[in-house]
C-alpha cells in the first residue's frame, strides 16, 4: 500500500520548511494554537506567508496568503487579479479598470487603483509585471488593515496582500511570490509612494 506521501506528495510543512531554509527566512511549525508560517525579513519589512481557513456550515475552505505591512505615504490603493467569469464582481467594489499599455497584461488581468498614474508607474517595472504573470491564480492588492478579527494597523500603515484558493506547495511559485513582494515594496519607495520605515506591526 502506498504511503500518504507517495499519494499526495510532500506535505505543506515539508515544502515550507525547505523554502524557509533556501530563502533565509524563519519558519514556525504548525501547532495546536498556531498555523505554520514563513517569515522573511527584507530590508525593513517582514513578509509573512501562511494559510487561513473559512468555515461555512459543514464545509471549510483554505486559502494561502502573503502579507507585508508598510508605511503608505499617499494612501495609494490597487487591486490586480486574473480575468475570469467572475471578474465583473470586482468591478462592483468601486474602482475602474485601468490599461497600462502592455497588450498581454491588459488582456489577462483586471487592474484597478487610485491614483491611476501611480499604478501605471508601479507596473512600468517589467520585473513586477513578469512576476505577476508567473502566478496562475492571483489576487494582489493593498489593504488598509485586516478588520475586526485581524491585525489593526497604526495610522498611515497599510499592507501588501496576496491570497489564492488552496494550499500552495509549489516551492518555485512561493519563491516568485516573495520576489514579487520584495520588488513591489522597493518600487513603491522608488516612486515615492512608500517610506523606507519599519511599519511597527506584528502580524498575527
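Q: What amino acid sequence fits the structure above?
A:
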Amino acid at each position: 500500500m502506498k504511503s500518504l506521501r507517495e499519494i499526495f506528495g510532500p506535505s505543506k510543512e515539508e515544502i515550507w520548511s525547505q523554502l524557509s531554509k533556501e530563502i533565509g527566512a524563519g519558519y514556525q511549525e504548525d501547532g495546536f494554537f498556531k498555523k505554520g508560517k514563513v517569515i522573511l525579513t527584507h530590508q525593513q519589512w517582514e513578509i509573512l506567508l501562511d494559510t487561513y481557513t473559512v468555515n461555512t456550515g459543514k464545509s471549510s475552505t483554505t486559502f494561502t496568503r502573503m502579507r507585508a505591512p508598510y508605511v503608505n505615504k499617499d494612501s495609494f490603493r490597487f487591486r490586480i487579479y486574473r480575468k475570469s467569469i467572475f471578474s465583473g464582481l470586482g468591478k462592483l467594489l468601486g474602482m475602474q479598470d485601468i490599461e497600462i499599455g502592455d497588450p498581454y497584461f491588459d488582456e489577462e488581468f483586471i487592474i484597478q487603483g487610485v491614483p491611476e498614474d501611480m499604478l501605471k508607474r508601479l507596473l512600468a517595472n517589467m520585473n513586477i509585471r513578469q512576476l505577476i504573470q508567473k502566478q496562475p491564480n492571483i489576487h494582489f492588492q493593498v489593504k488598509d488593515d485586516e478588520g475586526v478579527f485581524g491585525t489593526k494597523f497604526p495610522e498611515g500603515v497599510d499592507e501588501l496582500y496576496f491570497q489564492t484558493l488552496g494550499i500552495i506547495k509549489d516551492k518555485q511559485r512561493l519563491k516568485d511570490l516573495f520576489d514579487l513582494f520584495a520588488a513591489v515594496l522597493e518600487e513603491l519607495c522608488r516612486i515615492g509612494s512608500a517610506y523606507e520605515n519599519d511599519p511597527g506591526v506584528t502580524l498575527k
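Q: And what stands out in the fold?
A: The helical segments are 4-8, 12-23, 87-91, 103-108, 116-123, 126-133, 171-190.
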